Amino acid sequence: MIFKMMMDASSEDEKPVVRGFLKHLILGFAGGMAVGSVLLGGMLLSLQNMDLDMPLLWIFAMMLQCGPVGGLIGVGVYLSKVTTRDSGKDDDDEPGPGGNAPEEAKPDQIIVRPKARPVGALKPSKA
Known about the structure:
127 residues, single chain
């Protein structure tokens, strides 16, 4: 239901991004469950000579705890694919709006006014 709400709330150009996000989330969760199952099997094989009275709920809880971690890893992999990274280019080094670099003045933009008053000067009163 939440996935359908996410798809309905996204615009047409955002739908492929949301679809990829959800696909990687589910695949990562399934991969985490598989890893959890393998780890549980390995643990049970290493302890096979012991008499373990494990409830079935505890076994499922051990498998389930790896699922969300796998989902987060899947989302991280997808987001690293979606974002474009330019390691040599920094937006703050470019002049323009939002950048920190000083904007170079062109010679035709400099205006010289010979009788300009300083900003803090007092005006004479006409009283």
